[in-house]
Amino acid sequence: MALIDWSKVTLTDPPQLPREVLRELKKGIDGTFREFSRGYGEAIENFFHPLLMFLKWFQDLLIETPWPLILVILGALSWWGSRSWKMVVGTVLAFLFIGWLDMWEDTMATLAIVSVATLLCIAIGIPIGILMARSDRVQSMILPVLDIMQTIPSFVYLIPVVMLLGIGKVPGLLAVMIYAIPPIVRLTNLGIRLVDKEVLEAADAFGSSYRQKLFQVQIPLALPNIFAGVNQTIMMALSMVVIAAMIGVPGLGVPVLRAVSNQYLALGVMNGLAIVAIAIIFDRVSQAFGKRLQKHREGEHGA
Amino acid sequence: MKKLIVKGLATATTFAALSTAAFAECGDVQMAEMNWASAELMANVDKFILENGYGCDVELVAGATMTTFASMNEKGQPDVAAELWINAVREPLFAAMDEGRLHSAVAGPITQLGEGWWVTPSFAEAHPELDTVVKILERPDLFPDVEDPSKGAFVGCPAGWGCQLANANLFRAFDMEAKGWKLIDPGSAAGLDGSIAKAGDRGENWLGYYWSPTAMVGKYGLVPMDFGVPFGGSENWDGCIVKAEQDCADPQPSSWTQSEVHTVITDSLKQEGGIAVEYLAKRIFPGPVMNAMLVYMGDEQAGGEDAAIEFLSRHGDLWKTWVSDDAAAKIAAAL
After folding, report:
1. Which of B187, B300, B301 sits opposite A248 (nearest CB)?
2. Which residues of B touch A156 (CB under 8 A)?
3. Do the domains B114-247 and B2-112+260-334 match in fold?
4. What is the pTM of this model?
5. CATH of the domain at A109
6. In terms of residue numbers, what domain contains A182?
7. Residue A247 and residue B197: Cβ atoms within 8 Å?
8. In this structure, what is the dihedral angle of CA atoms B31, B37, B42, B44, given to the nearest 10 degrees?
9. Nearest alpha-carbon partner for A169 in A127, A109, A222, A210
10. What is the ipTM of this complex?
11. Mean pLDDT for each 10-residue chunk of chain B (335 residues)?
């Protein structure tokens, strides 16, 4: 079978696979994936089952927790992060407003998936970032993967994810994570690589083991960068809420989709703004936290 | 200018009707080629059969439902809309039919078409006794939801589609929550198709909303479920089921409303194109055949013309019942 149909090549038409070969190729790839899904889909689904149960449990927990308690927890979290009364009052007011406009349940569902996604991204992303910082070879292998994850249109990986795992929370979580994990990996890598060589030499001079160097020197000094990564990861996870709704993840994305297909202006704007409000709160709190870490370091330098 | 042509046509029509018998020579016929796969296929099959079997001169005109209908209604062109979904144009169409400007050549040119609740074929084979929705609803355990296996999963319509309301209200009308069911929002058309693809590929049970003719129905052999209750009247359906939940306090169980599809022709064709009209009246595609053709078109990325030839060579026994023996021979020769 010829791989190039020379008879069709002209100055305006580049060499291309003959139409039949291309079609067979596409069908072959689709067929292979279908076989894979048939063979292993159930096993993969079972593998993720605990995660699904956890997601469902966490979402139910958030929804069933009395709202004053949620407000107290959110207020306390923002105080812990930012140490600013303005932030605390703003957070509580924003959530009261969300509840007032009948978006409480969707907001809790969104909070559940975004926080689980963020925690998983941190748990997986930071070790990968550390590995990348240790070895240039690992870095050169992982960087292109991160580039793909950040730029490939999400709809492209939604298709295989849905075929493997169906619709619902787990495939939605995976889609969110694919998009949201690169910043934490990148910034962990960068933060550790930016640690002063002289500080490391000093650590070596004191005879610290690799473990001590990593946990007591490199990571603490890289924390502001890592925190910038966490912040970016949260933002990107929130921005995927609507896409995740397209494969049946409950949350604020669902009313947005309904608004888009029916031209419900108010519904769309309200739910969109609720997503923005959560994003701003998370952003300010985590940034303030990151800045506090940095201040601490600057203080040390100044001293 | 256009008015002149229409007038000329009208005169010619009257003349033709007066001077010749019903079996006039088939002349020029303009057919709408709607912009979705099944309509493309039908238009191209019609073209091939009329041109090669009866010597008509068929021109295909691309169009969508509204534009094609408006053009037929106002200008009398094109002559044929093979697959016109009535619900979108009900009132003006019936007005035009009353005035005799448009006619229905055949009601339901594709059988088993419309919306409803479907199951995967593996379920239908394994449980032939559960042959209606009402019976299936007693067995939510056969369709366990992944998140909560104690409940049955019913996959409804994506958020924001009109059918979402109808499915949610039917969910209430059949009292499905109390029976242990959960209404799943697939989020988007891709989500709905994906959930079918997953269940179909793995032979799992699936119950949900879909419609025909579609490639999905053909590809995965989805089986339409009889609701087990009659249509609950248009007052219940149009006044409640299709409305938002707050406007539908007391929905009653009902089967899905019938989707009406007609092959609509203009008056001039009805008067003039005797053979063509006779053919159109007989030309009915069984639903499974149409769905299989849609799968073929999707898999092979075939356009309407290629698909028409594939259909004609695959289903000779079917289309030969639509045409005279003489024409059948000519068409077979042209293939």
Report:
1. B187
2. none
3. yes
4. 0.77
5. 1.10.3720.10
6. 19-302
7. no
8. 60
9. A109
10. 0.74
11. 47 43 63 88 91 88 84 86 83 88 87 88 91 91 89 89 87 92 89 90 91 88 90 86 85 87 88 82 89 87 86 88 87 85
